Amino acid sequence: MNDASKFGFGTKAIHAGQEPDPSTGAIMTPIYQTSTYVQESPGTHKGYAYARGKNPTRVALEKCIAALEGAEYGLCFSSGMGAMDAVCKLLRPGDEVITGDDLYGGSYRMFTKIFANYGIKFHFVSMTNAENIRKYINANTKLIWVETPTNPTMQIIDLAACAEIAKENKLILAVDNTFASPYLQNPIALGADIVMHSVTKYLGGHSDVVMGALVTSNKDLYDQLAFILNSCGANPGPMDSFLVLRGIKTLHVRMDRHCSNGRKIAEYLKTHPRIEKIYWPGFTDHPNHEIAKKQMKDFGGMISIVLKGADLEETFRIASSFNVFSLAESLGGVESLINHPATMTHASIPKEERERAGVVDNLLRLSVGIEDVDDLLADLKRALG
Q: Which of 103, 256, 343, 382 is the most interior residue, by most CB within 10 Å?
């Protein structure tokens, strides 16, 4: 598909970046399981010399993800953390980053345990009012890193406002769009410079691939990030690229079901006597709900709940008692998952900081899958009592 921009999302999900194989007519992009490419004479390769730099299966996927995000360029990495690592490598000692006070635990760990050791300073601040970012900007600030919705308290950050602040101060705005997926939210259109995905989640969608991606429409940023990817080697293999290309073909269909199931489950849990608090941006009383309505197509299938009066033992008992929901890390697959962030995905964050952000010991995070919603509701009813 040469000009994906004129097509709708579902058409792009199925066709963008992909053409029938010229040698056989195969409709699916082949798995180019090769580490190197033959050259007729030294330096005469046609863009492919060594697979760490480029692989045709991966290139097709990169073009597809870029098209879904409305961006010019895409890069795929061996994990979401590998993609984040590349963004951080744009920085130099003495640079400063402003980011949110509710982040995926792996992001917090990378910032504080890896890149802080290289003289990069991170400010973890409330971003629910984007104007708060201005207080932390100084001559050393280079990057604003945003998650929205956040993991796990579903904070909604105003991306257009963040982009305005970034542009005024000549900063890079990078957005982790994993929870929303390109189907629900497109940060590039709202002014972001870089969008990151843990492709492992909704883009892959079947809990069988670990991968990350970056997209941008800034050629200079793309060139720098592509150089980092090739130099540092966090590239995914062709089989994983093929699996994600296949998964993306149903992204729009899956996301519609994630959203509709998520809505029904959130509405059920909101009035449940065992629930003290629920986080889901589709509720009118959710902080920044109006911003979510403006910048998202729908509200997604991620929900977090705080169990009323439950200690850690009781929280563990409930988390382990489901039949349809599976207790596991990760999210965004076709199957429903339940997670205890304090001891699983966010265990690397000190308890005091976790609790200040709302990640208390009796909080559970649900990734609502695409099963029959009545079965999911019955499972919740039985487990919660």
A: 103
